[in-house]
Amino acid sequence: AQKITQTQPGMFVQEKEAVTLDCTYDTSDQSYGLFWYKQPSSGEMIFLIYQGSYDEQNATEGRYSLNFQKARKSANLVISASQLGDSAMYFCAMREAETGANNLFFGTGTRLTVIP
Amino acid sequence: ETGVTQTPRHLVMGMTNKKSLKCEQHLGHNAMYWYKQSAKKPLELMFVYNFKEQTENNSVPSRFSPECPNSSHLFLHLHTLQPEDSALYLCASSQVRPMNTEAFFGQGTRLTVV
């Protein structure tokens, strides 16, 4: 079974608008971490934001915030005030405590296109 | 400059060739990984090394052979590959602990098997 599901293959957003990228996950662990990465056309994966399963507050990092709904097992990324440079692939990933703290499982990604 | 450098950036090889991918990190990390990224599929974790010891091998065919001579270098040796092995191969590194430590990725090697 997929551990990370990203149901939006592609998303479009107008420049300066906000956009939400969906991510749901599947785990039986109580302790896990959720990550979002950005992959521009250059290929490298750039870390954006992290949410721990025990964190009570939603994570925020500049224009990025995470809408963490633990009961629904979702960790959606919200990008506010979109910029043209935000056009890229976005990946949600999870690390589970029981399988080892350094195995990152990724979803299929969402391609975000920011329209001028 | 991400701190993780992969060479070569592009590689075209025949099915009978032998080649190696190289990854180098100068971030002081003690874990290194190989991922395979194919179109429309999740990133596939291939190998994990913690403190130079291999801890994960996710049913990867033996035509892929990793080597981690020290904590800063990671290789992926390739031989008798198949066309379906064409993909972007990404190397990453991180600290083993704590849980919230992010992995840093290289820019990848775009491999084409002909």
Helices and strands in order, then pairings?
The complex is a heterodimer of chains A (116) and B (114).
Chain A: E1 4-5, E2 10-14, E3 19-21, E4 24-25, E5 32-39, E6 46-52, E7 60-61, E8 64-69, E9 74-79, E10 88-96, E11 104-106, E12 110-115
Parallel strand pairs in A: 2-12
Antiparallel strand pairs in A: 1-4, 3-9, 5-6, 5-10, 7-8, 8-9, 10-11, 10-12
Chain B: E1 4-7, E2 10-13, E3 18-25, E4 31-37, E5 44-50, E6 53-57, E7 64-70, E8 73-79, E9 87-94, E10 104-105, E11 109-113
Parallel strand pairs in B: 2-11
Antiparallel strand pairs in B: 1-3, 3-8, 4-5, 4-9, 5-6, 7-8, 9-10, 9-11
Structure described in brief:
Chain A is mainly β and about 120 residues long. Chain A has no helices and twelve strands. The mean pLDDT of chain A is about 90.
Please give a handful of descriptors for the protein shown.
heterodimer; A: 116 residues; mainly beta; 6-stranded mixed beta sheet; 0% helix; globular; B: 114 residues
